[in-house]
């Protein structure tokens, strides 16, 4: 969608929300006021995800449109990317750290605030499903490294080599220079954060990544950190992030965005404020990207990023599209 058209739509919806709230509190509605209230009936089911992950949103939509719940939809949706070896930033085929280990981070959160997470997980292709098991089968929220891997085997996950020929070759090339700088967002598919609302109006989210390529061994980003890479509040909405995780952690980005929506901001406005908070701490810095994506209880969505290029995919009965997001630096 054209940027101008998208912005126009966002502000129209935001205006619709305000007037509906005002109208709803007015006892003597006119016919047209009642029609306006009906017009903002929540959009559900709906799924959105960071970047242009067509197959992942198709899968989530398949679950939602068959009457499935939001939690299953986001898990099964992001699993598509975890299994795709051509996606070198998520799951099997993800790029390794500087020591040559492919280490995965993921989390999942449901409508009741239950959540599970795995960090620095090796040899398992579907970290999001291990995170869901942590949520459902243990009294804990985060399992790390060897402990998470052992738990995964106990839960029936099988050991897999997460390297592909391509990522091994790239790593060998990288070793020749061993530049400390990490590479990020070098193509338009990256960490997947997914948010869904099911037919009941319940919200869930998931986020999964191999993190920054050639990161220092042991590094964990924002993606598996509840409140940073993902946050869901079933009364308000949900948010997720992609980009340089360190910056998202420093502002507890996704939690911040959900709280801003609770205070009345639209998803678009909340994402903009989230990025601006980060930029305040990084005055003039241009060498990193962050993209935020949010959805509110009405199924309105919004996104904002540091540099142009971030998009998000949205699928509801209204249609299926890849939305270009406006940015801090044009
Ligand atoms: C991380 N946020 O590990 C992830 C990486 C990412 O776009 O999202 N890249 O910091």
From TrEMBL:
The record marks 190-191 as: Cleavage. This is N4-(Beta-N-acetylglucosaminyl)-L-asparaginase. It holds the Pfam family Asparaginase_2. The lineage of its organism: Bacteria, Pseudomonadati, Bacteroidota, Flavobacteriia, Flavobacteriales. It comes from Flagellimonas zhangzhouensis. GO terms for molecular function: hydrolase activity, acting on carbon-nitrogen (but not peptide) bonds, in linear amides. The active site is at 191 (nucleophile). One of its GO terms (cellular component) is cytoplasm. It comes from the Bacteria. Substrate binds at residues 219-222, 242-245. CDD domains: Glycosylasparaginase.
